[in-house]
Design a protein that fits this description.
Length: about 1150
């Protein structure tokens, strides 16, 4: 049985926890760190040898290599240097060492020991003394690892039989790198060379010195002792070396098994032959070899057990994730290489337990190891218990926070479903199928492979109950029905693009079978096996998405990069697909439009197909009759429908086909002109019959509906086509003015009229920018623009929510266009330039507060499942609407159309609405800081000041501060979030942070330097004084807190802000001169750097008064003699703010 993983994993960081201490970087390139002093052999068999490591033996001269160090060629004479350089074949390096071992095994072993020590990054000294020369009691005392405080050296003493090794190195905690974790290609290559060296060492020794009971005992003792060290470098390096040795021993064991089998066969053959003297000698020889082959595996097995118990069992739960990952990776390879020994529950449990590891790297190694096992059908039979125990965990790992782990978990489950019968239940499969809709493309593609191989490629049970198709499309039609059924059952009807993209790599031939798809759509409803209405909608949507994927060659929005670079082969396939799309749909699309012309949902998904045509095929292939058929069907659709989505799709068709460089341009332009003539004549006739200048609209509901439909059709075409010659602006503008003055027209008529007027003005602006215009034309256009802006401003307070929001969106877009004109005529720019007045800015900001940040009361009642789904859909649409309103207003702030200080009202809602609008507000903050760091920082201070003043006002006349109140804690958290936006580069943010300290937190003038109590605050006082002393030197920070300079738009430096003639201030002069009561309080604010919090005490605080629309809850201020004049309004300059700093013990 496999034990539960909970206890094992919970204890993984406790039972085997070791102090993570690292060895300093290895700088030993001359090999002078090893001294085998006091090396004594028993009974004088060998003289005492004491030599430095850089005094090499003659056998070492053959493995010299060279490396470039500090511009000079240095000979590599040690094993570490040769392996690091990696210029020689590893087999020759090992052969040299083996020859040296055969000559003097003690010296060669010390060379190998030094190699492992140096690979750990140790630059210390290694001494060795024989185990036989010490009493047993002394041996126990020397198995220690201590730190000598007097010398500052770290000691590691352990037994590497038959020696006691002592490693001494200086402790340098500042340097934590060692070769295995150093970055760069050189050290990555070193790791590969290190692993190769250990493998080749066993390979070259397997026929000679591997079984001498001296080499492997010493090496295993060494690596086991180092693996138990508190030093991370020793543990990591020795664990990797030991497990690679075990892997090499597994290969040796496999070779021995093959040799044993062959020897046994030869022995049986020889035994059955005729007996004779010569035969008996051969039989005796084979008998000795057979016994030798039986003995060697036992020795190898003992070595494997020693390494597994001494290293793996101790380190697979190490605190370092890299060490745990090495253990899991190697045990997975052992199971694949030698399943007879390792592929059982006693070893599989370690992989199962580590599936719950906290580090993604370890979990990933587990999954990769299991993939190698489940991929082989002959091994799956041994995995029954493991599968039943850990299958649920693997299924849950598809939701892993690490994307690569989730992808590999999905691939593993696919292998399990292929090679293990009934391993996954139907519920598991249904859960895994839904991952085709995930935004992470590699995971979605893996889920698509699972769906294709499990559902679409196995059509046995799935086809039962489905109608059979006949003819040449039968196989593809059956699979398409299964795909459509899956899509409809998933109830994610707006995500078909994600489904197609997930299956594109595996089912491209099916998804590109447009002939089969259209044949299913063109079947008569009475035929057997015809599709239902929902199935037809799904199939048409699949056709559109597959055509787009084939023509554009990039994934849908939200999945990976917007566009990917195609290879030559992919471009060739793309061209072939475009040709196939053109040849097929030029003929079939008019037939489909004729059949579904009355169904708006189907028509919307069919009309975009021609934009992926090769339009030259109409003329080169003499297919004008199909073009005429297409234009005829599109015209019929325009006349039948008034839905804006359908009409805009038809408008785009004409726009695509009317490209000036096409041979069919004249034919399509004539058809378009005829259609618009009919639409305009129809609108003129309806208005002539029902519109009176004094009375307004005089008609019934049917007449109003016809007028609205005509206006929608014209608005849809006016968006993509210049209809200036029909002079629609005057007619629609008249309707808007009448609604502004009287307000009696239906909203469904005003909305398309507003759009028509807006599009007409935009086309006039385009014409002015492209060619020179007379001054009379510019003045007339200026008048129309001012009138339209006035109309939109009036509609902001309209009782109809849809109309007011549409007017706001149009107004914001128009203001942005007018403030950033691109015209060659300076006169045109000067006359048409328009920037919002302060009054208009106030109205727009109040509109945002009312329509974006106003919470709607939720109704709590019992709802059915359908009502819950409808309510959720309404919430999503409402959130999308509010995000659009906020985004279009924030663009005005970013591009300096409105004052940046208006963003203070937006920033107040950053915390409360973070989930809904956090990304928009954060991007606005980033862009404004890029435009003007100082003004952006002032805006942040203004936001916090307003919130704090509101908090003070809620306390009333109470002198005590509620530091634990919710509002004050929210201010602190908002300040902390603001501080995080400055980033980690203190040089870039220094100017902004210094400004915040000057104007937000610290005193501007310090009269008593000794006011702060306690010596611990002197550094802060010095810092504050340095800021104030350098104030005059910093040209970017000018003026007092009441004289904030407004930003100069970077792109419209030649423009001058025009203010309205009306007074912006709505408060009386008497109210403006009122003073707020002085208060003393102790408050706690987060520092801008986000690293420390200090307590600040504000005394006699007087804050500047800002514009009413920017500071609805802002405090009043004291009067000042300094006045700032801007047309017809004035603003006083506030007094300086005095803030004293006190220590935390004084709070």
């Amino acid at each position: 049985m496999i034990a539960e993983p909970s206890s094992a994993i919970a204890a993984s960081h406790q039972e085997n926890s070791v102090h993570d201490e690292t060895v300093p970087e290895s700088t030993v390139q001359n090999g002078s760190c090893l001294r085998n002093g006091n090396l004594k052999t028993p009974r004088g068999k060998r003289k005492v040898q004491e030599q430095c490591e850089n005094i090499r033996r003659n056998s070492s001269s053959t493995r010299k290599a060279s490396q470039l160090q500090n511009g000079q060629v240095v000979e590599a004479v040690t094993l570490f240097e040769v392996v690091s350089v990696g210029k020689r074949a590893m087999q020759s390096v090992v052969d040299d060492w083996v020859e040296a071992y055969k000559q003097d095994r003690d010296v060669a072993l010390l060379d190998l020991i030094n190699f492992f020590i140096q690979c750990s990054g140790c630059q210390g000294m290694v001494t060795a003394e024989m185990f036989q020369s010490l009493p047993k009691s002394d041996v126990i005392q020397k198995m220690t690892e201590t730190f000598d405080e007097e010398t500052g050296l770290q000691y590691k003493k352990f037994m590497a039989y038959p020696w006691i090794l002592t490693v001494t190195w200086p402790v340098d905690m500042d340097n934590e790198d060692y070769p295995l974790i150093k970055p760069g290609p050189y050290w990555k290559k070193f790791k590969a060379n290190f692993c190769e060296f250990t493998a080749v060492l066993i390979q070259q020794c397997q026929c000679s010195i591997l079984y001498d009971s001296y080499l492997m005992d010493t090496v295993i003792s060494l690596l086991t002792g180092l693996a138990d060290s508190m030093v991370r470098a020793f543990r990591h390096t020795s664990t990797l070396a030991a497990l690679k040795l075990l892997t090499a021993l597994v290969r040796v064991r496999l070779n021995l098994d093959v040799s044993k089998h062959n020897t046994q066969r030869l022995y049986e053959v020889e035994k059955n032959r005729i007996t004779g003297k010569r035969t008996n000698c051969r039989l005796d020889q084979l008998e000795r070899k057979r016994k030798e082959c039986e003995q060697k595996p036992l020795e190898i097995q003992n070595m494997m057990n020693a390494i597994f118990k001494g290293t793996f069992l101790q380190r697979y739960r190490d605190v370092i994730p890299e060490i745990r990952a090495i253990c899991i990776e190697e045990i997975g390879s052992w199971m694949k290489m030698y399943p007879d020994t390792f592929l059982n529950d006693s070893y599989l449990k370690y992989i199962g337990w580590m599936l719950y590891d906290k580090q993604a790297e370890v979990r990933l190694k587990c999954l990769l190891g299991l993939q190698g096992i489940y991929n082989r059908k002959e091994l799956v039979s041994k995995m029954d218990l493991f599968t039943s125990r850990f299958k649920d965990r693997i299924v849950s790992m598809t939701l892993d926070k690490d994307h690569e782990v989730a992808v590999q978990a999905m691939k593993l489950l696919m292998l399990m479903s292929q090679n293990c019968e009934d391993a996954l239940s139907s519920e598991d499969c249904e859960t895994l199928y839904q991952f085709v809709y995930t935004t992470h493309r590699p995971l979605a593609v893996a889920a698509g492979e699972f769906l294709y191989k499990r559902l679409l490629n196995n059509q046995g049970d799935e086809e039962e109950g489905l109608p059979k198709s006949r003819g040449k499309f039968e196989p593809s039609a059956s699979r398409l029905r299964i795909l459509i059924a899956f899509f409809l059952e998933s109830e994610l009807h707006k995500h078909v693009a994600y489904l197609v993209d997930s299956l594109w790599d595996w089912a491209a031939s099916l998804l590109k079978d447009w002939a089969c798809m259209t044949s299913l759509l063109l079947q008569d409803a009475e035929e057997d096996g015809a599709l239902s209405g929902a199935q037809e909608n799904a199939l048409i949507e699949i056709i559109l998405v597959t055509v787009r994927e084939a023509a554009e060659g990039h994934p849908p929005v939200g999945r990976g990069a917007a566009k990917k670079i195609l290879s030559v082969k992919e471009k060739k396939i793309q061209l072939e697909d475009c040709t196939k799309i053109t040849e097929h749909f030029i003929v079939v699309l008019p037939q489909l439009l004729a059949k579904y012309s009355a169904d708006a949902e189907k028509v919307v998904n069919l009309l975009p197909v021609p934009q992926y045509y090769d339009l030259e095929a109409y003329s080169t292939g003499h297919l004008e009759q199909h073009l005429d058929a297409l234009l005829k069907e599109v015209k019929d659709i325009v006349c039948k429908h008034s839905d804006m989505d359908v009409l805009e799709a038809c408008s785009r068709i004409y726009d695509i086909l009317c490209s000036g460089d096409l041979a069919i341009h004249s034919r399509v332009d004539l058809a378009r002109t005829q259609l618009i003539d009919e639409l305009v004549d129809q609108l003129n006739q309806l208005l002539h019959d029902s519109w009176h200048e004094e009375e307004g609209l005089c008609t019934g509901e049917e007449g109003i509906s016809r007028i609205c439909s005509a206006l929608r059709r014209i608005a849809a075409f006016h968006n993509a086509h210049d209809l200036a010659k029909w002079n629609l602006h005057d007619k629609t503008s008249e309707l808007l003015v009448f609604e502004m003055e009287h307000g009696s027209l239906p909203v469904q008529m005003i909305l398309p009229a507003l759009q028509c007027t807006y599009f007409a003005l935009l086309w006039q602006l385009v014409a002015v920018g492209e060619r020179p215009s007379s001054k009379e034309t510019l003045l007339a256009l200026r008048k129309d623009l001012r009138l339209f802006c006035q109309i939109c401003t009036c509609y902001l307070s309209h009782k109809n929510k849809d109309l007011s929001e549409k007017a706001f969106m149009i107004l914001c877009d128009l203001l942005l266009i007018l403030s950033h004109q691109n015209s060659s005529s300076d006169e045109a720019v000067g006359l048409l330039e328009y920037l919002p007045s302060m009054s208009l800015q106030s109205k727009m900001l109040l509109f945002i507060q009312d329509h974006v940040f106003t919470e709607e009361e939720e109704e709590f009642k019992d709802l059915t499942e359908e009502e819950e789904r409808t309510k959720e859909g309404y919430k999503l649409n409402d959130l999308h609407r509010r995000r659009s309103l906020l985004a279009v207003y924030c663009k005005l702030i970013v591009y300096n159309v409105v004052e940046m200080v208006a963003a203070a009202e937006i920033y107040k809602h950053y915390m409360k609405t973070y989930n809904d609008f956090g990304d928009i507000i954060k991007e606005t903050l980033s862009r404004t800081r890029h435009n003007d760091k100082i003004q952006c920082a002032k805006t942040l201070v203004l936001c916090l000041q307003q919130l704090f003043q509101k908090h003070i006002n809620t306390l009333g006349s109470s002198n005590s501060m509620e530091l634990s109140s919710t509002s004050f804690m929210n201010i602190k958290e908002l300040a902390r979030r603001f501080s995080l936006t400055f980033g980690w580069d203190q040089v870039k943010s220094r100017e902004s942070v210094a400004m915040i300290h000057k104007y937000g937190y610290l005193q501007r003038y310090i009269k008593e330097p000794g006011f702060c109590k306690g010596d611990e605050w002197h550094p802060l006082v010095w810092y504050r004084n340095s800021l104030l002393a350098n104030e005059e030197e910093e040209s970017s920070v000018t003026g007092g807190i009441g004289e904030w300079s407004s930003m100069s738009p970077p792109k419209i430096s030649t423009f001058k802000r025009k203010l309205s003639n009306g007074s912006l201030l709505e408060t009386s002069p008497a109210e403006a001169t009122n003073k707020i009561p002085d208060f003393q309080c102790t408050l706690q604010l987060a520092s801008p750097a986000g690293k420390s919090r200090k307590r600040l005490k504000a005394q006699e605080t007087s804050r500047p008064e800002y514009l009413p629309f920017l500071c609805p809850a802002g405090p009043k201020r004291r009067c000042s003699q300094n006045m700032i004049k801007a047309e017809n309004f004035s603003e006083d300059v506030g007094e300086d703010v005095d803030v004293d700093v006190v220590g935390p013990e004084q709070g």
